[in-house]
Amino acid sequence: MLFGIDPLLGPDLLMILRAMGHGDEIVIVDANYPATSNAKRLVRLDGVDTSQALAAVLSVMPLDSFVESPANGMQVVGKPDEVPAALADFQTIIDRSAGFPVAVGRIERFSFYERAKTCFAVVATSDRRLYANIILTKGVIGGDGKIVA
Q1: Overall domain count for the chain
Q2: How far is CA 40 from each of CA 84, 118, 119, 121, rounded to the nearest angstrom?
Q3: Engineering a disulfide at 87: which of 73, 96, 101, 131 sits with its beta carbon 3.0 to 4.6 angstroms away?
Q4: pLDDT tens-digit series, residues 38-91
Q5: Residue 6 included in any domain
């Protein structure tokens, strides 16, 4: 155990988060997502939902303030403006932790899959909610230890 580190952040995930650089992306996915076949690096968080994983990751990783949308969820097929429960949850978590205003963007399903394949890592959860997937772009921590926004 470590002080100040969410216990969901095990050694493999902490190593990945620390190795990521500014602009690298990580995707947190639900139980239906084809994680194993689409990951450069895969970390499993079984028994955890994507909201719990998102909160844990954002407790140590800044979002990128230099891109239009540093957090992107998957659009509902055929209903691109619908906000599924998981996405609403993600927005609440990001509002609480980002340190600057971030609106969660949405990416069409197959475009989301293609972008996720290029991510630094995939965090697979056992979340059974539909559309409970999010791509995060890592930001910068300045010399003063604060998020550069």
Answers
A1: 1
A2: 27, 8, 7, 6
A3: 73
A4: 999 999 999 999 999 999 999 999 999 999 999 999 999 999 999 999 999 999
A5: no
